[in-house]
Design a protein that fits this description.
The chain is mostly helical and 102 residues long. The protein has one helix at residues 3-98. The protein is rod-shaped and about 145 Å long.
Amino acid sequence: MSTVLLIVLIVVAVALVVLLLTTGKKARAKRDDDKRLEAREVRREAEVRSSRAESEGAEAEERAARARKEQALADEQATRAQEQREVATERHERAEEIDPDR
């Protein structure tokens, strides 16, 4: 093999190695950019979902507070009704005691 042919083969081999390395770096850079874009989109979706979750949580807390208030009012009303029943029972008993026909 002649020296010139050997030098040409070495130069071609080096050129191929450089080309492969350059192509590999570009492909890796493209993959990294694609992953960055995907990560950005996932973060944006996460922020939207977090915002919705906060809103729904606040609404649930408000609804629970209204329910507690309504329950307290219902408890008060039930207490008043029981007191009225007791008074009515006492009055019926008193009426029985004083009724001369009974």
